[in-house]
Design a protein that fits this description.
- This protein is an alpha/beta fold.
- The protein has a single domain (21-170), classed as Double Stranded RNA Binding Domain, CATH 3.30.160.
- It has helices at residues 2-17, 49-65, 151-170; strands at 21-26, 37-45, 69-70, 77-84, 89-92, 113-116, 120-127, 133-140.
- The strands form 2 sheets. The chain has a 6-stranded mixed β-sheet with strand order 1-8-7-4-2-3, covered by helices on one side. The chain has a two-stranded antiparallel sheet with strand order 5-6.
- A hairpin with a 5-residue loop joins β7 and β8 (133-140).
- α2 (49-65) runs parallel beside α3.
- The chain is globular, with a radius of gyration of 18 Å.
- It starts with a helix and ends in a 7-residue tail after the last helix.
Length: 177
Amino acid sequence: MKALTTIALILLSVVAVTAQKVKVGSDPATDFSKYKTYAWDQGAAGLNPYVNQMIIEAVDNAMAAKGIKKVASEPDLVVAAVVSTDSDLVMSNPSWAPSLNSISTGIAAAPQSWPVTKGTLVVDISDAKTKNGVWRGTATHTLEHGPTGDKAHDAKSVAKPINKAVEKMFKQFPPKK
């Protein structure tokens, strides 16, 4: 019985360690009520076009649900997505978010770099006129399975985590005052 309990605890800890974590931050000085339209900045930046399309569709659906319309020109917001499937990346935080763990403080600081670990999806939203980042969502453990060479199979394996991550991110968009 003791061995069975130990095995159960080990399995639960493995699941907890690899659970998807979503963090969202935004510029506290931004009035999100003024944004009505958006466009993509080069789409999603990943090597698998099927996965990129899934991310774009998930974000498009989330933005439409928030009443923000996708346009071909002169958007209010610009959306970009970055995925890390093969190796770790390094990204820079906007000045309003010195680290994703302290976004809620709203204390302005110089931009800082942070590691984006393998399996992470990052969705960045910027003001189209000022080019300043206004919102960022990150989801770890979303694209965990590295490329197998079969892009369609790889895309199927991450479809559910991508949709779940985007749904969690956009529950917090636009941010509440």
